[in-house]
Design brief:
The protein starts with a strand and ends in a 17-residue tail after the last helix. The chain is built from 13 helices and 20 strands. The chain has 428 residues and is an alpha/beta fold.
Length: 428
Amino acid sequence: MALIVQKYGGSSVADAESIKRVAKRIVDTRRAGHDVVVAVSAMGDTTDELLDLANEVAPIPAPRELDMLLSSGERISMALLAMAIHSMGFEARSFTGSQAGMITDAKHGAARIVDVTPVRLRDALDEGAIVIVAGFQGFNRDTRDITTLGRGGSDTTAVALAAALGADVCEIYSDVDGIFTADPRVVPRARKLPVVSTEEMLELAANGAKVLYIRAVEYARRHGVVIHARSTFSSSEGTYVLDAQQRSAYIPEGEAMEEPIVAGVATDLSQAKITVIGVPDVPGKAAEIFKIVAKSGANVDMIVQNVSAAATARTDISFTLPKSDATAALKALAADQLDVGFEALVHDDQIGKLSVVGAGMRTNSGVSATLFEALSTAGINIEMISTSEIRISVVLRADDIAEAARVVHTAYGLDGEGDAVVYAGSGR
């Protein structure tokens, strides 16, 4: 008997029929002799609809009340799922995040888990029940308030429960069969990966891959949780996310263990670019600029500084950040323009980032050349470049991202024989 934690996203529980399909999968796992704990998201687009409703009644909703509102979506789906399991003749008990012992800090809207005390969940499992937990939410002991974990919070809930309960595996269900070499909605010939390393998955998630969220992958890496990304809509084997020690346990002896040069291509259209024009080219100016940006709460990704113009002794500094952070950063920089001494600001929200990720990059040459040649042949211009040990990222025009992903995917020999299957269309 194994203890399995399963997580089902919004598209997996989008309506009554979907909930019943998920209930049957959970019951089948229980019939196979396993204990089952389930973390569930809100139905379909419920969270987005609740956000829209909040913005209609209040231009800036109070953070505490917004968490109270948004956490209701998961409570609806957890109760309905428990009812569906009951109707199949199995005991199921639903728990909110606070009832499940999901203790967080006090930051509303983006709380971080500080402890998990799943006493009631263990009691329910010992009594033979299937446990259903509302994802995305927790409880702060000091304020005694409900909190939410931010986007991807249900993934993080599932991994945190798996770690606290000592689960054998954490199964993350979505509407695709696992983790692919690219988003199959963008690159139809993308191939499913049977195994991806934890470090590769961290880079893919950080650079736009949507099947798993980076916080959940990082939590799993830190606590040694095995993640199995699967589809709600099929019974096929998915993708295991494993560290080096776990790989030796999960991959049969004799199978190739060498890491691929390139594991996947990720795309991200959620970023904007700000260029600070005419910055005095003297020590300390870049520090001033990014202190201002940091105080605005913006999270900077890529940075490029041009060569100083000899005639003016001034330079331009460009950086990318989430579109949602751009307005605050621009406002903060404009307020300190005279103190810093730059000439102007340019905001560009029509960019996209393409990233090539692979642990094999460490020991193979020519990876960069393949990327740049593929883009050049397609007539696609590169605006910014950033690298790490196992990643190369480039900023392109947003309109070029889909074509760029397809030609780069082909250039690295990642194309499959047929089109990948996407069951529901949302990626979650």
